[in-house]
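User:
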Amino acid sequence: MARPRIWYVLQHRPGPAADPAVRITDQPGFQEHLAFLRRRAQDGTLVAAGPLEDSETGEGEGIAVLATQTPEEARRLAEQDDEAVRSGLLSVTVRTWTVVMAPVLPPTGPDTAG
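Assistant: Predicted structure:
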């Protein structure tokens, strides 16, 4: 069995600056979140991202999975590099995920987390 891989799950929810009467994706500033995700794709840290369709608390929740070297780096990117989080449009919780089984895993670089 392959050794476990550590990834970081960014759980996004509408933040205090979000207007509950407007879909989160239609709000000013959401494009900044997409720009954050594009930057993570370009630097190779983004594993996957997308909305949660079965959210019990309502529309506007989603996750992104990052493969960074440390939890501190994942937290810094999530909280400081995503302008939608900085502005309060989105709130984020960063969780450590130990992946012990996956039929297909993206390739890893030298000394990547996992």
